[in-house]
Specification:
mainly alpha, two-stranded antiparallel sheet, 4 strands, globular
């Protein structure tokens, strides 16, 4: 075993054993079929009444209401649909400007609230013990809670001690990691078999294929794609961000597109390794995802791809990675040579560095590092908001373009420590599962590869919370659970399976 592989243990595949229900014990409750039918009929009648009322105001609103009621009913009958819808739809709508379609929310957040609310209501109706549910968390989930607490409660209390009033930005950013933890729980409690994991993986790849296809066309400025994206996907209404030969696609963020593509590229590698799915289809998807990474035109994304390839070599072997990775990279680089050439021109500046790199470093030195290093701010953080308003900037803000600076800024040492604890626990669990077989092992391969690359590229940007790609990562974490190994029958609802 290599030195790198020796960092992680490889225990034998554990036999899944049914443990205690998630509310702490007792018989697993089930919703009475007659009660379920009454609720279903009630929802249908309510939907018809709402749609009828809205039809007099707006046909579009009536159709949306019918779609929402239909989704609610579908999730009520088939809980796994909640995860399917979130995994497929999130990358397609996460880049839509907040509030442009739904007040205060992005469309993916609204979807999460709807299907998550249905799952919660379904669980409450199924409880017949009269006791309040008590969620049982494993080690990984405790690290997620620790990160969420360290990025919200800790800095807000520290602001209170310093008599600093939180802004709406602070409150909004303090909810980010809680939102991702909620997404994790949503997928965790709706996916209960290995077959459902496989469906979720294919839906994720299908959604990523659309995102990468749009990113490639955008980077090559074909078919007017940048103009088409400007209506809803231009960050803060700045159309110029869509015409810089970078594939921001439906996520409105090139680096997020690359992260999403790397995650799904690792899924392709895992499926090919385990002989799951049509090899030609998987090879085509793999090439498309590789082109998606290149179309993002981010140096940090190329670095992330290389680190992910090294991580995959520990699992599939360096020979296989080189055999298939190098030719694909050459083909991808040639197909997008105009995009690559434009980015390389940045090194011909007077400083020898791309303008974006110089600007990134100047912003850190001007707006963040002085405040972070003053007093004891680096211990418990400055504030949850990861940006400062600057009127001279095109977007009106300057963001923290360094992931580790963001960790210290948003939660100090507690957030930094909890992040490393999360990385260690998640990668250790993914390594164990990746040596097994089945869809859960494929999800674990993807988690291992992306987290390995994230540790490195967090030097440049806060990839942990990038819209779209972060949602996909937390959903993948919920799919890569040892409880789902070999689970071919649906487990009792909300029951916890522990090895």
């Amino acid at each position: 075993m290599s030195a790198g592989a020796a960092l992680f243990e490889r225990p034998a595949q554990p036999a899944p054993v049914l443990g205690r229900p998630w509310w702490g014990g007792g018989r697993t409750p089930r919703l009475d079929p007659r009660a379920r039918g009454r609720i279903f009929v009630g929802l249908a009648v309510l939907g018809a009444l709402v749609a009828g009322g809205l039809l007099t105001l707006s046909p579009i609103l009536a159709l949306v209401a019918l779609a929402v009621v239909g989704l609610v009913a579908w999730v009520w009958v088939r809980p796994q649909v909640a995860a399917y819808v979130v995994i497929f739809c999130t990358p397609l709508v996460a880049g839509i400007n907040r509030g442009s379609v739904i007040p205060l929310l992005r469309p993916n957040e609204a979807i999460d609230l709807v299907v998550g609310g249905v799952l919660f209501a379904r669980g409450v109706f199924g409880v017949r013990t009269g006791q309040m549910p008590r969620l049982k968390l494993d080690t990984l989930e405790w690290t997620l809670v620790a990160m969420a607490v360290a990025s919200s409660i800790v800095p807000l209390l520290w602001m209170y001690v310093r008599s600093v009033h939180p802004t709406s930005d602070d409150l909004q950013y303090s909810l980010v990691l809680w939102k991702f933890f909620g997404l994790y729980l949503l997928v965790r409690f709706s996916i209960r078999t290995s077959e459902q994991v496989l469906v979720a993986l294919w839906l994720g790849m299908a959604s990523c294929a659309i995102v990468c296809g749009v990113a490639i066309l955008q980077a090559l400025n074909l078919f007017g794609v940048p103009h088409l994206l400007s209506a809803y996907f231009a960050p803060y209404g700045v159309d110029g961000a869509l015409t810089i030969e970078r594939g921001s696609s439906l996520l409105s963020l090139p680096a997020a597109v690359a992260d999403l593509a790397i995650l799904n590229l690792a899924v392709v590698v895992g499926m090919l390794l385990l002989g799951m799915g049509n090899r030609l289809v998987l090879a085509g998807l793999g090439l498309l995802f590789l082109l998606g990474v290149i179309s993002a035109a981010e140096f940090s994304s190329v670095l992330a791809l290389l680190v992910a390839a090294v991580a995959l070599s520990f699992i599939v072997g360096a020979g296989r990675v080189i055999k298939f990775g190098v030719p694909s990279l050459v083909i991808g680089g040639y197909a997008l040579k105009s995009v690559v050439g434009t980015r390389l021109l940045g090194f011909s500046s007077s400083t020898g560095l791309p303008v974006s790199w110089v600007g990134r470093l100047n912003n850190l030195r001007t707006y963040f590092w002085p405040t972070l290093s003053s007093g004891w701010n680096w211990v418990l953080g400055v504030r949850p908001a990861a940006r400062v308003p600057v009127a001279s900037q095109a977007f009106g803000y300057v963001w923290i373009e360094s992931g580790y600076t963001w960790l210290l800024w948003g939660g100090g040492i507690p957030l930094l420590a909890s992040y490393f604890a999360f990385i260690w626990v998640a990668m250790r669990r993914a390594w164990r599962l990746a040596t097994q077989s089945g869809p859960v092992a494929v999800a674990a391969v993807a988690v291992f590869a992306l987290l390995a690359s994230q540790v490195v590229v967090m030097l440049f940007d806060p990839h942990l919370t990038y819209r779209g790609s972060a949602d996909a990562l937390f959903a993948m974490l919920a799919l890569a659970r040892p409880q789902l190994l070999g689970a071919r029958k649906a487990q009792p609802e909300f029951a916890e399976v522990r090895p």
